[in-house]
């Protein structure tokens, strides 16, 4: 530790003699601050460190990415991909693969929501709504005896 670096401390160096210790502590605290309540703005880290990086175009891309992931979660949850009478082993493998994909996307949407950004929250909810609408109304013919009740949530 005689070379001015603290090994094993994530690259944080001690306060230089010319810098006020309080100022340095506030700067380090500001860099590590996370929002724990909803906020609005493009200055958010979504899924990855420094992404979208405060740029408007990248923030919009991040919102589109979260929206598409939420739509895909709903499409994978409510669409039938296996025909009745298919080989049980092959259909089981396909169902397992689709389940892994759906759960992985759902976890990514959840992690994006943990940025506490209001825009991310809105696009995630709208993505789930659009995906549910498309998968249940546009693609599927409703059964004759089904009312307007929501289907049970299944994992």
Automatic annotation (TrEMBL):
Transmembrane segments: 57-76, 97-114
Stored InterPro entries: Cop_transporter (IPR007274)
Assigned keywords, A-Z: Copper, Copper transport, Ion transport, Membrane, Transmembrane, Transmembrane helix, Transport
Bilayer disposition of the protein: Multi-pass membrane protein
MF GO annotations: copper ion transmembrane transporter activity
GO-annotated cellular components: plasma membrane
Family of this protein: Belongs to the copper transporter (Ctr) (TC 1.A.56) family. SLC31A subfamily.
Protein name stated in the entry: Copper transport protein
Lineage: Eukaryota, Viridiplantae, Streptophyta, Embryophyta, Tracheophyta
């Amino acid at each position: 530790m005689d070379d001015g670096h603290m090994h094993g401390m994530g690259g944080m160096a001690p306060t230089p003699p010319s810098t006020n210790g309080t100022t340095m502590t506030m700067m380090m605290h500001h860099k590590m601050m996370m929002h724990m309540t909803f906020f609005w703005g493009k200055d958010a880290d979504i899924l990855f460190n420094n992404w979208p990086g405060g740029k408007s175009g990248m923030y919009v891309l991040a919102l589109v990415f979260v929206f598409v992931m939420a739509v895909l979660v709903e499409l994978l949850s409510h669409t039938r991909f296996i025909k009745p009478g298919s080989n049980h082993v092959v259909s089981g493998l396909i169902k397992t693969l689709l389940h892994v994909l759906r759960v992985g996307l759902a976890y990514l949407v959840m992690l994006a929501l943990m940025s506490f950004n209001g825009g991310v929250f809105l696009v995630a909810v709208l993505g789930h709504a659009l995906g549910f609408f498309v998968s249940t109304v546009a693609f599927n013919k409703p059964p004759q005896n089904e009312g307007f009740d929501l289907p049970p949530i299944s994992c």
